[in-house]
Amino acid sequence: MNRHCLLICNLINLGILDGDNEITQGPEVEKWAGGLENYSFQETNGVTTVTIETDITEDYLDYFNSTWPRALNKLKELAEK
After folding, report:
1. How many C-beta atoms lie closer than 10 Å to residue 27's C-beta?
2. What is the Cα 22 distance to its own chain's centre?
3. CA distance 36 to 46
4. How many C-beta atoms surround the C-beta of residue 7 within 10 A?
5. What are phi and psi of 14, to 5 degrees?
6. What percent of the chain is predicted at pLDDT more than 70?
7. Could you tell me if 34 and 57 are in contact, meaning their C-beta atoms sit under 8 angstroms apart?
């Protein structure tokens, strides 16, 4: 029997978190605010595939290319416990 499950998480960026400080105004936030991140988790027969779609600007491309692999590895580690 094939088993399928789909979970979608949509995020709208409202600001920047710097440690415990939420920054919601200013020039850096203007580049970021309103940006979308869409995460979908599709499980089929015990295997989950994560797909990420985003509309980030070039200013944040290097940041996400370096942080997403680490974050997704941590997510995988937690999910497999």
Report:
1. 6
2. 18
3. 28
4. 11
5. -110, -15
6. 96
7. no
What single string gives the DSSP state of each residue in the chain?
---EEEEEEEEE---EEETTEEE-SSHHHHHHTT-EEEEEEEEETTEEEEEEEE---GGGHHHHHHHHHHHHHHHHHHHT-
Report the amino acid identity of residue 18: D
- pTM to 2 decimal places: 0.73
Q: What is the pLDDT of residue 10?
A: 93
- Give percent of the chain with pLDDT exceeding 90: 33
Structure tokens at 66: 């370096």
Asked whether the predicted pLDDT for residue 26 surpasses 60, the reply is yes
